[in-house]
Structure formats: C-alpha cells, structure tokens
C-alpha cells in the first residue's frame, strides 16, 4: 500500500505530458508577416482531432479578443481545423491560442502568431487558455492509475481462481470487492472530470450539466459509459447469483468472465494510442490482448500473494499452475509489446531522443526486474515440486540370525521388505512469499510507467513533427536586456531563431524601449559563436524591415550551446554589446 500511495503521489504531482496529436502545418505559418489579412486560420495535425466549444481564441495587438466565426473541420479532413476571421484586420501582430482533443482522447493546446502589414509588440498572454489546470490534471491522472490498478486486480484474480484453483477463494473476496468498487468509482470520476480536463478548467466545473452532456456525446465519454455499464451489469449478475445461492459450472464461469473482460479491455484500447495512427484495427487488437495479459499476470501476482499470506498449507499445485499461467501471459506481453513499441517509436533514434522512448526504456527496465523476480519464484516452485515428487523409500534391514555349529537347519530367510514411501517433506513457503512480494511491488511500478506512457507523445509523432527533444522548442526565443548608460538608453532585444535547430533557419529581432513599447534603433547586429568548437562569430546579417529586424536565411552548422551577441546602437555614438547563451538542437 505504501508503494501504491507513493506512486499515486508521483502521478498526481507530475507535470502533464504533451498530448499525442501534433501540429503538422499552419496557415498562416507561425511568425510570418502578411501583406493582407488572412480570411481564416488553418491548423493541420498528425491525426484527427475533436473541437471544443472554445477551441480558437484570436487576440489583436492590444490583447483584445477578436470576434471570429465558429471553428470547424475542413471538408473531408478530420485532421484539419480552421476558424474564420473578420473581413478586416488592422495592421499588427495577432496571437492565436488553440486547444483541441486528439484522436486518442488527450487534449492538445498551443499558440501561434502572425502579423498583418508589419510586426508589432503584443501584450497577448495565452497562458490562461492553453495550459493545463494542475488540480484537474492531477485528479485525472490519479483516477486513470486507479482504473488500471483495479482492472488488473479484477482480471488477474478471476484468472487465478479459474485456472490455479486455490483451496479457498474466500481470502480473495475482500480485495476483489475493493477493486470492483474502485474501478467503478475511478471510471465515474474520469467521466465527470473529462470536460474540465479537455478544456484545462478547474475541477469545480466538473458537475456542470452542460459539460456532462457534452462528454456523453464524445467518443471517450461513450467508452467510459460503456465501461460503467459493463461493470454494473457484472455486479448485478453476481448479486443475483449470490442471492439465489447459485454456483455456475466452471466452464460457464470462464465463458461469462471472458464475455465481460474482453469488451472491458476494449474500452481502454479504443481510447488510447491504438485508436490513432497506423494499422488501427491491428493496434486495437494488440492493445486489448496486452491489457488482458498484463492484468492476468500482475493481478494474479496480487492474488497469489494474498493466498500465500492467508493459507498456511498451500498445495504446491497452486503456484505451479500460476507459473504456467504467468509464462503464457509473458509470451503474449512480449509479442504485443514489441509491436506496440515499433508502432509508437517508428525509429531506433526515437528510443533516446523522445520522452516516449525514454519512458519506454524505464518500463522495459522495470519489466526486466519483474521477470528476474518471476524467474526466482519459478525456480523455487520447480525445485520444491521436484523435492516433493521424488520417491523416498524406507527400508528395514532384517536382524541377523547366528548360524549354530550343530543343530537343526536354519529357518528360511524372510522376503525383502516392501519399500514404503516416506511422507513428502514439508518445505516452508516464506521464500516464495518474499519473491512474490517483490514481484508485486515492481508490478505497481510497471503499472505507473504504463499510465505515464499513455500520456506521452509517441516517438513516431514527435520525430515526424520535429519535436523529438522535449526540452528544446521548435522555435528558440531569447530576450537580452541592454543598457547603454544614457537616459532612455535601456531596453531589451527579443531574438527568435525559427527553428532553433541545426540547419537553415530564419532570424527575427524586435527591440523594446524602457517603457516596454516597440523601439526603433539605427543599427542592430547579431552574431553567434560556438566556443566549444571555436566556431564564429557568425554574422546573421539582419536588416531593418520597418519596425523589426530579420534575416530570412541563416545556417547553424552544429548543435550545442552557442553564445548569441547583440550589438545595439541607439544613437550616432551610443551603443552596447550584450550576450546570452542559446541552445541549438540537432
């Protein structure tokens, strides 16, 4: 319980990962200056997206919201969203904040800017509209982990009782009931929190009737309702059978369990990574089998641990059967896991260059530790089974009868004694309990990493959209303050490298005065130097574009930490050179 509590705290406090749909292209492009105002803003994503009631917000240079038309999809393009703009837009820089829901049920948010006629300073702040609400995200992540944990306990316990046949199932009744109620409660919580989670709103808006009604019409909401219906139907059947004291035959029990567990697993597979991307039908089938095998193995571990702690003399056949069941589950997990990893990564480089790949490596390490502990348990079971089944014979040596020198003939020798098998040795189970306890603790870590993995951008998507390194933004923005030492000679220069990666990029620079407004200077020179390789200074050759400075083409030859120097001249004789480090990705 302590391990589970720590993992819940970790999941609740972790910053929410970026969602799974990524922007492939925008029209107008981010940061561009247009001669005439566009009629609409169009965003194309890597997968189909759903729109919210307030998916697009457009702000003018004075931070006033622009009244736009209703957002919608391009005809026949569920991966393309667009919003109409007013017929006339004044000159200046506009900010577009957007938030949509990707096909795998995770919200996507971001912002872009474009300028009409000339680039101007803008006071627009998109933070309230595009960031996650920490409380809502934490509650939603905790509910997701509890749902994974409880479904694993339910599936694993059912498989353990049906296949391993412990002498008494009563010790498992309490954890099964707790897991069932936890799954029902966590599913209901996910449904209630779905709307504020998508919109980045506080959890206080969760009980809004309009929000609940809208959630019920979305695919994630429909899947959550289907999961609740399955759970309530199964609970009703169990209660009716208990009230009538009816016990189903073993085969009928297995058929009912399969009829419930498969569609239950589908409610997860159809709402996560498998629902978007390539080979969707095969991916959903693989994800369903992966979840069933995971629940059978990890939930069965918890059931075995509970049985070992509550049954003093457990037949060796129970852990032996579970060992075979675990081996089959691991085989299914290996096959489906390899396929899902290939589908999510797309390349070997994504294994180390993306957050998805690094999380996957951590999960593989935890699974390796789990397999090691399982191998120890299996070795103990095999060794104990061999010791108990090996025939042990007790023999009695007949007493020697002295032969007299004279006298009657000796009596006939008695026949050899019949071997009697010795009772099997009673071997302690404390070694197996320790090994299974270690497996259960590592299993909780595997479940936590699985939950985090489903909240991370797949490596294939991150690589395709140029966001492989989560710590480096696509566009690098650096703000450097300066002070020439004269009245009114203070300010800052904001320099943008787009993209901030190796290769050809564009450079834009805006100079702000001491009052924070846009300032015009007679000269601005920007250079970059890579001290570690003794490269530079490389002159960007920015030119005055009427309110801002820019260079359309500048080449960054190598990755690393570059030193950006800006020489700002504010008058004929007053100038200053300031610098700041800039990280350039590969």
What does this structure look like?
The chain has 586 residues and is α+β, with helices and mostly antiparallel strands. The protein has 13 helices and 20 strands. The chain has helices spanning 2-13, 127-130, 134-164, 173-199, 209-216, 219-244, 250-269, 280-310, 317-345, 350-353, 355-389, 430-453, 459-464, and strands spanning 23-27, 32-34, 40-45, 49-59, 65-66, 72-74, 77-84, 92-102, 107-116, 393-394, 420-421, 476-483, 490-498, 503-512, 523-530, 535-539, 543-544, 549-556, 560-569, 575-584. The strands form 5 sheets. It has a 5-stranded mixed β-sheet. The longest helix has 35 residues, at 355-389. It starts with a helix and ends with a strand. Mean pLDDT is 77; it is low at 1-19, 126-130, 422-427 and 467-473.
Structural class of the secondary elements?
Answer: alpha+beta
Rg estimate, integer Å: 34 Å
Q: What is the CA–CA distance across the termini?
A: 44 Å
**Count the helices. How many?**
13
Mean pLDDT: 77
State which percent range the strand residues make up. 15-25%
Strand count, sense and barrel status of the largest sheet are: 5 strands, mixed
Overall outline: elongated
Uncertain stretches of 5 or more adjacent residues: 1-19, 126-130, 422-427, 467-473
**Largest sheet: spatial strand order:** 2-9-8-4-5
- Helical content (DSSP H or I, runs of 4+): 40-55%
How many E-type strands? Answer: 20
């Amino acid at each position: 319980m302590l391990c589970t509590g720590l993992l819940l705290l970790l999941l609740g406090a972790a910053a929410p990962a970026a969602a799974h749909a990524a922007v492939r292209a925008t029209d107008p492009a981010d940061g561009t200056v247009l001669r005439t105002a566009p009629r609409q803003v169009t965003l194309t994503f890597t997968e189909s997206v759903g729109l919210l009631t307030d998916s697009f917000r457009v702000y003018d240079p004075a931070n006033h919201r622009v009244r736009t038309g209703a957002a919608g999809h391009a005809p026949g393009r569920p991966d393309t969203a667009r919003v109409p703009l007013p017929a006339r837009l004044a000159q200046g820089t506009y900010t577009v904040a957007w938030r949509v829901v990707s096909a795998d049920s995770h919200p996507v948010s971001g912002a872009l800017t474009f300028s009409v006629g000339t680039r101007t300073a803008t006071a627009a702040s998109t933070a309230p509209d595009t960031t996650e609400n920490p409380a809502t995200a934490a509650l939603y992540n905790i509910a997701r982990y509890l749902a994974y944990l409880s479904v694993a306990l339910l599936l694993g316990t059912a498989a353990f009782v049906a296949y391993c046949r412990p002498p008494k199932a009563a010790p498992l009744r309490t954890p099964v009931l707790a897991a069932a109620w936890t799954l029902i409660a966590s599913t209901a919580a996910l449904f209630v929190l779905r709307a504020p989670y998508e919109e980045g709103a506080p959890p206080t808006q969760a009980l809004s009737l309009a929000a609940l009604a809208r959630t019920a019409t979305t695919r994630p909401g429909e899947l959550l309702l289907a999961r609740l219906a399955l759970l309530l139907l199964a609970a009703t059947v169990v209660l009716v059978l208990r009230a009538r004291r009816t016990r189903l035959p073993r085969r009928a029990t297995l058929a009912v369990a399969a009829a419930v567990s498969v569609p239950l697993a589908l409610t997860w597979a159809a709402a996560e990574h498998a629902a978007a991307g390539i080979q969707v039908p095969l991916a959903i089938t693989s994800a369903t089998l992966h979840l069933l095998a995971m629940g059978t193995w990890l939930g069965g571990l918890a059931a075995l641990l509970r049985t070992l702690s509550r049954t003093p003399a457990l037949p060796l056949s129970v852990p032996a059967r579970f060992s075979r069941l675990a081996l089959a589950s691991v085989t299914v997990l290996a096959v489906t896991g390899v396929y899902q990893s290939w589908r999510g990564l797309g390349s070997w480089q994504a294994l180390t260059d993306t957050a998805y790949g690094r999380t996957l490596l951590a999960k593989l390490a935890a699974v390796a530790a789990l397999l090691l502990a399982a191998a120890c348990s299996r070795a103990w079971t095999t060794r104990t089974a061999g010791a108990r089944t090996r025939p042990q014979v007790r023999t009695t040596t007949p007493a020697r009868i002295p032969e007299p020198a004279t006298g009657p003939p000796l009596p006939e020798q008695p026949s050899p004694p019949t071997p009697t098998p010795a009772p099997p040795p009673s071997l302690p189970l404390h070694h197996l309990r320790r090994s299974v306890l270690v497996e259960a603790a590592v299993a909780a870590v595997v479940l936590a990493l699985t939950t985090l993995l489903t909240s991370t951008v797949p490596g294939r998507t991150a690589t395709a959209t140029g966001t492989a390194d989560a710590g480096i933004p696509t566009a690098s923005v650096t703000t450097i303050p300066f002070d020439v030492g004269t009245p009114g000679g203070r300010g800052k220069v904001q320099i943008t490298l787009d993209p901030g990666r190796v290769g050809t990029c564009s450079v834009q620079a805006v100079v702000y005065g001491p009052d924070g407004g846009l300032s015009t200077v007679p000269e601005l020179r920007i250079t970059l130097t890579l001290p570690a390789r003794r490269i530079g200074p490389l002159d960007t050759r920015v030119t005055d574009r009427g309110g801002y400075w820019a260079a359309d083409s500048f080449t960054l030859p190598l990755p690393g930490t570059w030193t950006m120097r800006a020489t700002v001249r504010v008058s004929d004789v007053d100038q200053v050179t300031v610098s700041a480090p800039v990280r350039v990705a590969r």
